[in-house]
Design a protein that fits this description.
42% helix, single chain, 13 helices, 17% strand, alpha+beta, 461 residues, seven-stranded antiparallel sheet, four-stranded antiparallel sheet
């Protein structure tokens, strides 16, 4: 395998093919040296993908690419050499290899034509030229390229990854990936996955310095993923009735993950469009990616969700609670959770406040066991105090919690009735006065996040 661009040797399983391809490459490289002298390398446009040039910069250019002579790019180029006939003879005599070239190859729902000559140019000749920077036969470079080729031709499984990018989200340096139930993994996207997300508008990309350069914020480069293995087929043995993969399959898990992240970390993370593509480390069987062109939700980049290492276990715990049958079947709780998520994505503090107070009304006025006597704002305030007194995360007195929630409900009424909320005295959870409505709403959201965490734990079986 090519590990980090380095050369790794493999056991040769087909020594006759190894020897035949080596003879062919020696002849081809000698011919290129005689006809063209030395290889040229330069930047080349790449209309099939975006390549990372920095943390947030991506360009549609392959840097330092081999400027392949025009005759080499012809798909029958290698057939001009006598040694290619020996390679074909070895392939034809091998019962596995002869059904893996010069036909459609892939998984049952995605076969791609694989021509032997062009495959050898792409996966053996070009890597050797790049490694040696010359038209010379380098045994180490050849063995590495051939090993990759042989492994790919003999592969019996192909890994396909479903990717749902998250917008307005990132994790700190102490978090590399988060494993979740159902073989799900939350991780930073690979460069190839970000490239596909740019192409399908699954992440916000801003053109920077021309049509070949875009910027993708670091807050849009993580995703929920799941990897599934499928048998490799060719057009000679593909099932008569191919079965497509279940796609998209991560819409609900991504929604639940967004809810868990919002409850634990706050912010405005949302899930984007689902994509399906082959695993980066596998020999190419499925070029490109597929995607669902679903509507894109709004996210506020000014309030990104940031996952710290100390919050990972809490996110896992909340994610598990969200899958509990009692939680899924509680309509009122589901409404409150949905309103909290909507509040996180809203940019206007007035809209966020309304959604948060709807969640509070559902919890403290409608749900059995949580409602108390009095006016509606007294009920929501008393309910929050009862659940959050002594809460280790908020660390606020019962009086402050009650006063803030009561203020939030009064401000919600002002908005609903067209009154000016700035005529009221505004203050945050600590009791300090503030002139900004967003500061009040931020603290109300903190309170409601903790309320919902407590209600979730009490509801789950």
């Amino acid at each position: 395998m090519l590990a980090g661009g380095g050369l790794v040797s493999r056991e040769v399983l087909r020594p006759r093919l190894h020897a035949a391809v080596a003879r062919l490459m020696r002849t081809v490289l000698n011919d290129l040296a005689a006809e063209d002298g030395a290889p040229a390398f330069a930047a080349a446009p790449d209309f099939g993908g975006w390549h990372r040039h920095g943390q947030e910069s991506f360009v549609a250019i392959r840097r330092d690419a081999w400027q392949m002579p025009a005759r080499v790019s012809f798909y029958r180029f290698l057939d001009a050499f006598e040694e290619m006939g020996a390679v074909r003879a070895v392939v034809e005599a091998d019962e596995v290899l002869r059904e893996r070239v010069d036909c459609g190859v892939g998984v049952e729902f995605a076969l791609t034509p694989r021509q032997l000559g062009w495959t050898l140019v792409q996966h053996v000749l070009e890597p050797m030229v790049r490694a040696a920077r010359d038209y010379v036969f380098d045994q180490v470079a050849f063995d590495a390229a051939y090993g990759r080729l042989e492994e790919g031709l003999l592969a019996t499984k192909a890994r396909v990854v479903e990717v749902v990018p998250l917008m307005a989200f990132t994790a700190t340096s102490g978090v590399e990936e988060v494993d979740l139930p159902g073989n799900l993994v939350l991780r930073a996207m690979s460069d190839r996955q970000v490239s596909a997300a740019i192409g399908y508008l699954a992440v916000p990309a801003v053109f920077a310095g021309g049509p070949n350069s875009v910027t993708v914020s670091r807050f849009h480069q993580w995703a929920l993923t799941r990897c599934t293995s499928y048998p490799v087929y060719s057009s000679a043995d593909v099932p008569a009735q191919p079965r497509p993969p279940v796609f998209p399959s991560l819409v609900d898990p991504a929604s639940q993950l967004v809810t868990a992240l919002r409850l634990v970390c706050g912010g405005s993370v949302v899930a984007s469009r689902a994509m399906l593509m082959q695993h980066d480390d596998d020999f190419c069987l499925i070029p490109g990616a597929s995607a669902t062109l679903s509507a894109l939700p709004a996210a506020d980049e000014n309030r990104p969700t940031i996952l710290d290492a100390e919050h990972v276990e809490a996110v896992r715990e909340i994610y598990g609670l969200l899958l509990d049958p009692a939680v899924l079947g509680n309509r009122g709780l589901q409404t409150a959770l949905r309103r909290l998520v909507l509040a996180g994505a809203d940019r206007a503090p007035t809209d966020r406040r309304i959604d948060l107070m709807i969640a509070a009304e559902v919890l403290f006025i409608k749900l059995p066991g949580l409602s108390t006597r009095g006016s509606k704002w007294d009920k929501v305030a008393a309910g929050a105090v009862r659940l959050l007194t002594g809460d280790p995360v908020l660390q606020a007195s019962p009086e402050r919690i009650g006063e803030l929630v009561r203020l939030g409900y009064q401000l919600r009424n002002d908005e609903m009735h067209g009154d000016d909320p700035h005529e009221r005295e505004l203050y945050v959870l600590s009791g300090q006065p503030t002139a900004t409505l967003s500061a009040v709403v931020d603290d109300i959201e903190r309170v409601m996040r903790r309320v919902l965490v407590r209600v979730l734990a009490a509801t789950a079986v």
